[in-house]
Amino acid sequence: MIIGPYANSLGIILGSLIGFMLARAVPKRLHESMPMVFGLCSMSMAVILIMKFSTLPVIILACIIGTIIGELIYVERRINNAAAKVRKFAEWLSPGRQETVSQNEFLELFVALIVLFCASGTGIVGALNEGMNGDASVLYTKASMDFFAALLFSTRLGYVVAFIAIPQIIIQLSLAYAAILILPLTSEIMRNDFYAVGGMLMMATGLRICGIKIFPIANMLPALIIVMPLSALWN
Is the pLDDT of residue 125 over 80? Predict the structure, then answer.
């Protein structure tokens, strides 16, 4: 029975609601220091995943071509539009609670959180791992991390962070149940290249959360789709 994705989404929802209720009690210094820590954790896990690579040219090509595709089909713009609608919905439900964050800052953080919660290498690897052998330990670890991340960022963005649990659970359940069909068709080389590209996205996410560089993370997501076919063709 697949339970990891449910635990992960529950962690996001609980963290968001608790953070929303404790927003005024959280000291300002945590808003300044903890995002740096979450960004560091993301980048640290990214290094581990990137080091799994088998075919370096495939990693580079997947990131470049995937980003070009994402830019051409306006992936990040679509996510931004959806995030803006979510914000308006939250403002309608709870007037005044979103005014502490500007529209641009809200969109930058919200999109980064979508990638961190839904498309991180940890979540992808964890979902595939549970689907193949029933081991949910990776997703349990991610659930604890996402709980604290959701708690902190919901003190600034509001409980709209909880809405990210919807695409998160859909993606992880899809990966977990499809793993038994997908993984037998792949080689270890293809999987390692896939994890490495996931690590590249996690690195970009960490840099974005830390405010070092605003990468177009959502536009890079197609790289995760094309990396395995590229790896198969290359090898």
Answer: no
Quote the pLDDT of residue 64: 96
Q: Average pLDDT in the 172-177 region?
A: 91
Task: Determine the Cα–Cα distance for residues 174 and 86; give it in Å rounded to an integer.
Answer: 24
> In this predicted model, what pLDDT tens digit does every residue of 63-119 receive, in sequence order?
999 999 999 998 878 877 877 777 777 666 555 555 556 777 777 778 778 877 887
Write out the residue range of the structural domain in which residue 81 sits.
4-234
232 exposure class (CB count in 10 Å sphere: 0-12, 13-18, 19+):
middle
Provide the pLDDT for residue 14. Answer: 96
SS (H, E, C) 2-15: CCHHHHHHHHHHHH
Pull the structure tokens for residue 4: 């990891």
Q: Which residues of 155-181 are buried (b: 16+ CB within 10 A; e: fewer)?
A: bbbbbbbbbbbebbbebbbebbeebee
Q: How many domains in the chain? A: 1
Round the CA-based radius of gyration of the chain to a whole number and report it: 17
**Which residue intervals of 51-102 are DSSP H helices?**
56-72, 75-93
Structure tokens at 125: 């690897």
What is d(CA 83, CA 90) in angstroms, rounded to the nearest whole number? 10
79: number of Cβ within 10 Å: 20
- Contact by Cβ (8 Å): 54, 193: yes
Query: What pLDDT is recorded for position 158?
Result: 81
CA-CA distances (angstroms) from residue 143 to 26, 107, 147, 176, 227?
21, 23, 6, 16, 26
Q: Residue 78: exposed, middle, or buried by beta-carbon count in 10 A (0-12, 13-18, 19+)?
A: exposed
